[in-house]
Amino acid sequence: MKEQKSFVDNSKGCLFLVPTPIGNLNDMTYRAVQTLQDVDLVAAEDTRNTKNLLNHFEITTDLISFHEHNTASRIPELIEKLNSGVNIAQVSDAGTPSISDPGKELVKAAIKEDISVVPLPGATASTTALIASGIEPQPFYFYGFLPRKGKERTEALVDLANRKETTIIYESPYRVQKTLDDLADKFGSDRQITLARELTKLHEAFLRGSLVDVISYYQDNEPKGEYVLVIAGKPTEQTETMSDEQIIQAVDRLIEAGNKPNKAIKEIAAQNDLKKQTVYNLYHNIEGND
Ligand code: SAM
After folding, report:
1. How many CA atoms lie within 13 A of 1 on its CB side?
2. 89-112, pLDDT tens digit by residue?
3. Residue 121 neighbours by CB under 8 Å, 6+ apart
């Protein structure tokens, strides 16, 4: 085992990982501009987008496309260039490469070849949303995009619902409402959430409240723009064993808040790791095995 130093004077090129703004161009760092200017080649998720960024900063470096559909074929080509001394910067469309964006396979391939990988700090939507969320910032769990459907989605939601850390999810405006419904179903409708929208842009906005609050807000307001969802971790009280009476009271509270009895029972069962039938029997004072 040996340390891999970032700055070594050898014949190989360096792979620089360069974050780009998530909206506001002023979030480009001096070092990012300098690096994109100094390297021999910029590997970009979308060369047209990155060309606009480079033009804005008067950077004239050549571009090559590197995105999720050409990862496999492009990596050997980029590694060959790096091995022969070409310095390459990798960028995605917005934010930090490899964070819900292309990059990770190239990083792994470069490490394998003993090529220096130099990360630059910079813009990312996740922690930008987290620090203004008003929700406990640490510990946090960054998930990225949820699977769109099926068992994978359900399993991910159940796993996240039971985490004590704050969770960060990326979501498109077209799926925000569906995701909020699914979150309320698995996390409980009183879990706190902050929706951070259009970060660093003109219409930047935060919506803070319980899941039931934000769901009702989006019944009257269409979601617009890019979203980060920051969700509070599972409260410690919920993980402690509740007495039968406390369970009945918790179901009552959800019913009083407007939930149907079956939904309330399902939710309290999920929150307490109990079978739905157990809570149903308890609530309806039914004796029996479940
Ligand atoms: N690599 C990026 C990063 O470091 O944050 C993330 C890229 S991912 C393909 C795009 C998602 O990031 C969006 O769907 C949204 O969830 C989030 N996102 C990106 N820019 C955002 C912004 N300005 N405001 C809110 N969310 C944003």
Report:
1. 0
2. 999 999 999 999 999 999 999 999
3. 19, 29
- For residue 125, report the distance from its CA to the centre of ligand 1, in Å: 5
Which residues are CB-neighbours of 148 under 8 A, at least 6 positions away? 175
Q: What is the reported pLDDT for 9?
A: 67
Q: Order of strands across the sheet with 14-17?
A: 62-65, 41-44, 88-91, 14-17, 116-119
| From the candidate CATH numbers 3.30.70.1350, 3.40.50.2300, 3.40.1010.10, 3.20.20.70, the one assigned to the domain spanning 14-123 | 3.40.1010.10
Q: Could you give the CA distance from residue 180 to residue 221 in angstroms, rounded to a whole number?
A: 14
Whether residue 23 has its Cβ less than 6 Å from ligand 1 = yes
94 lines ligand 1 (CB under 6 A): yes
Least Cα distance to 91 among 76, 80, 101 occurs for 101
Assess whether the C-beta atom of 95 lies below 6 angstroms from ligand 1: yes
Dihedral angle at the C-alpha atoms of 23, 88, 75, 116, nearest 10 degrees?
-110
Residue 86 in contact with ligand 1 by CB distance below 6 A: no
| Total-model pTM | 0.83
Task: Give 152: exposed, middle or buried? Use CB within 10 Å, 0-12, 13-18, 19+.
Answer: exposed
Fold category of 126-231 in CATH? 3.30.950
